[in-house]
Design goal:
The protein has 507 residues and is mainly alpha-helical. The protein is 64% helix and 4% strand. The chain is built from 18 helices and seven strands. A three-stranded mixed beta sheet has the order 1-5-4. A two-stranded antiparallel sheet has the order 2-3. The longest helix is centred in the last third of the chain and has 33 residues. It is globular. The two termini are 29 Å apart.
Length: 507
């Protein structure tokens, strides 16, 4: 732990020093730097008003920061924090044994905090500024340039509507919560036997080399106002992230968050190894009421996660909202039915798991499909999640402690692929944008389910491979320097005492 803290402090000091020197040497450049396109949802990073006006000064509308949209995005950001701490923390905490309750709470809360700090230092800049097809640049290190000294106001960040903006600082905060919860999802795969310092070291490496590139590839583009004329459309698209250029749809993070984290979790489960007594001793959740409470908080917070990804308080936010409600309810029912058929009884743990499965499955689709499509995705997601934590888990042979891959991986893949099907106007979906210059959708008769489905397949495949490779390297580096596992004696005693010197419950 001391080695990790020393390494982290040194890295942060170098980042801060580099930023300070850069700021002193080029304050004028930082003040006038173009605000990069950044948006989320169907795949949209925000674009700077200045960058848009440079691309086509005659056609770009004057930036208009909408107070209602800004207020909604701040609320949505709070809801995503609610998802993580306490939602995910309690959901995971209830699933482990009592002797490891506090260790899971600590891993979630401290990992979230670490990622938020790294997001401000360099994460936001590498994810949501112009660079290349795989990673962004350094224009927003330490969020420099968010305050525009020339204009005397906060830099505007584009939404999906031309001429409508929110403060870029609000968008940066919203996306920070996405990065934080993604890293926290991973810890459920190797809970109850990993060193606390190893969790933090791995999270920092994986965030830098897997989360940031995937987020950039999926969500970075130049924003709607950059598409001011047909003559510049191809150029603007060429500056976007690779997966965005492919035309893949991911409204709120099926690839970036769930598949990305789930693959890392599965790799971790293999590389950390199985828990002592796994497959021999009974390893059961110590508090299902806490797990149910966590699941309920996740469901509530997820409305900010999904509907907030519209970046505006508009019809697409409302569509994402109702789809999140409907799909989750359908998945709860599907899991319970499947469980009753499989083992004769429907369980509360199954209902809570079904809710999470539905939330994961609808995430990439929530603003990209109609309500009927969301219902089908929820039903399929519920059954797919149950399959993932029963049959698939046995086939894989990994001790994925809290079924991170079984739920987030399987349902994330299902949701991402079905987005390509139910986005079709013929199946009740809104379709995809055909021309950003005129802001017109692809004509229903011209929409191709096959083309969109293949774009989704490519996005899923690249995310799986990218996360897997980075995760293997990251876990190996941590194992060689810090070590991944606690000793067998400490594992038997419980990580609450062994790692943190305290207990969740007095005896």
């Amino acid at each position: 732990m001391k080695k990790f803290l020393l390494m982290l402090a040194l890295s942060l000091g170098l980042c801060a020093s580099g930023w300070a020197q850069d700021a002193a040497a080029s304050a004028a450049d930082a003040a006038s730097a173009a605000v990069t396109a950044v948006a989320d949802a169907a795949s949209a990073p925000v674009a700077a008003a200045a960058a848009a006006s440079e691309a086509a000064p005659a056609a770009a509308p004057a930036p208009k920061v909408d107070k209602g949209d800004t207020a909604w995005m701040m609320v949505a950001t709070l809801l995503v924090i609610l998802m993580t701490v306490p939602g995910l923390a309690l959901f995971y905490g209830g699933l482990v044994r009592a002797k490891n309750m506090l260790s899971v709470l600590m891993q979630v809360m401290v990992t979230f905090s670490l990622i938020v700090v790294l997001w401000v230092l360099y994460g936001y800049s590498l994810a949501f500024t112009e660079g290349n097809a795989f990673i962004g640049g350094t224009d927003r290190l330490m969020l420099k340039g968010i305050w525009d000294n020339v204009a005397g106001s906060f830099a505007p960040a584009a939404t999906f509507s031309k001429g409508i903006y929110i403060p870029e600082i609000v968008f940066a905060a919203f996306q920070a919560t996405f990065a934080g919860i993604t890293a926290c999802l991973i810890v459920g795969a190797f809970a109850e036997r990993i060193k606390f310092s190893a969790v933090l070291a791995f999270s920092a490496i994986w965030f830098t080399f897997s989360y940031l590139p995937v987020a950039h590839m999926v969500w970075y583009w130049m924003g709607p106002d950059a598409y001011s004329a047909a003559a510049v459309a191809d150029e603007m698209t060429s500056k976007a992230g690779l997966i965005w250029q492919w035309g893949a749809l991911d409204f709120a993070g099926g690839t970036v968050v769930h598949i990305n984290a789930a693959v890392a979790g599965l790799v971790g489960a293999y590389m950390v190894g199985k828990r002592v007594g796994y497959g021999k001793d009974a390893i059961t959740p110590h508090s299902l009421p806490l797990t149910m409470t966590g699941a309920a908080l996740l469901w509530v917070g997820w409305f900010g996660f999904n509907a907030g990804s519209a970046l505006e308080a508009n019809g697409f936010a409302a569509l994402a909202f109702i789809n999140t409600l409907v799909a989750t309810a359908a998945a709860v029912l599907a899991w319970c039915v499947g469980e009753a058929l499989h083992r004769g009884k429907a369980s509360m743990l199954g209902a809570a798991s079904g809710a999470v499965a539905g939330l994961v499955a609808i995430t990439p689709a929530c603003g990209n499909v109609g309500v009927g499509g969301a219902l089908v995705i929820g039903l399929v997601g519920g059954f797919a999640g149950l399959f993932g934590v029963t049959k698939l888990k046995k086939w894989l042979g990994a001790d994925d402690s809290l079924d991170v891959f079984g739920v987030h991986g399987v349902c994330g893949i299902v949701g991402a692929l079905l987005t390509g099907v139910f986005n079709s106007p013929a199946l009740g979906g809104p379709g995809a944008m055909g021309d950003w210059v005129t802001a017109t959708m692809i004509a229903p008769e011209a929409y191709s389910i096959g083309t969109q489905f293949m774009a989704q397949v490519k996005a899923v495949g690249l995310t799986v491979v990218w996360s897997a490779v980075v995760s293997v390297v990251a876990f190996k580096l941590v194992d060689l320097t810090i070590g991944l596992r606690v000793s067998e004696e400490e594992e038997r005693e419980g990580l609450d005492i062994a790692s943190h010197g305290e207990t969740a419950y007095s005896k």
